[in-house]
Amino acid sequence: MSTTIGKVTESLKNLLVGEMVPATNVSLISPGDTSGQNKRINLFLYRVIENPHLNNRDWQPKRGTTNQLVAPPLALNLFYLMTPFSPLDPQTGLADAHGLLGEAMRVLYENAIIPQTYLETGLQEGEVKVTLLPLDLEQLSKIWTALNKDFRLSVAYEVSYVEVPAEQERPLPKRVTQVELDVRAPFKQPVLQGMSPLSGPVGTTLQFTGTFLRGWKATVRVGGRIAVEDQMLFEDQLFVAPVPAGLTPGVYEVEVNVANLSRLREVFEVVP
Fold first, then answer.
1. Are residues 158 and 195 in the same domain?
2. Residue-number span of the structural domain to which 123 is assigned
3. 79/165 Cα distance (integer angstroms)
4. Helix segments in 147-239, DSSP class H
5. Is 265 exposed, middle or buried (0-12, 13-18, 19+ CB in 10 A)?
6. Pair (207, 109) in one structural domain
7. For 153-178, what is each residue's pLDDT tens digit?
8. Per-residue pLDDT tens digits for 7-65
9. Distance from C-alpha of 62 to C-alpha of 77, rounded to nearest angstrom
10. Which of 199, 216, 222, 253 could, after both became Cys, cross-link 269 (CB 3.0–4.6 A)?
11. CA proximity to 218, closest of 230, 206, 207
């Protein structure tokens, strides 16, 4: 049984508990449950969808084997409703709840990529990105209507992307290794190793390092936009691609694919 979604939820809780000032209780129950009226922030997972950009990935070689392929992990986007709770004060009303919400939003804004310190075991830094959703009053009201509860001040966040490991496997198709008079086809699988720099303005030249890259074709996407597509590689250990135009300042996922044999995912921050 996969526990990935639960680990992401716990990681969000860890972040809020560890960074909010003053320290605040964080609950993970339905926002319609008001049994606990103490001051707290509540996180509620209300929607899960498949990531639309990562739903057609190829099968990958299984680690530690030479003849097995594994299905790509299921990539999901998670949607959370964050709601502050505080007893009604006869003098200030719900001002305490408003303060809690503002502090929680500050923490998520300053930690849009959850630091490794707060991630549950099995998650890696850079995998969990938190984004505030600009839902209007009507959209928020629909969520509360579905819960059959009166509307409360709340905000929504999207967490992307979350990978649920797949367990399906299949044998690697046999390759032709001998032609007629024992003529063998040389084959060294390309291996991607890293990317630099990790931040810069639009147009920055990204450098990708690896081994056995020469002779293969590479495709690079930044934030879903193509930087290079099917570019022939002429060096064994290095190739470059520009950060495409049109990206506004922010953090974007970089996807690199060399001949469907080696892939790399990194995070790049576009700065003004």
1. no
2. 3-171
3. 20
4. none
5. middle
6. no
7. 899 999 987 777 777 777 777 666 66
8. 999 999 999 999 999 999 999 988 877 665 588 999 999 999 988 777 777 767 777 77
9. 25
10. 199
11. 230
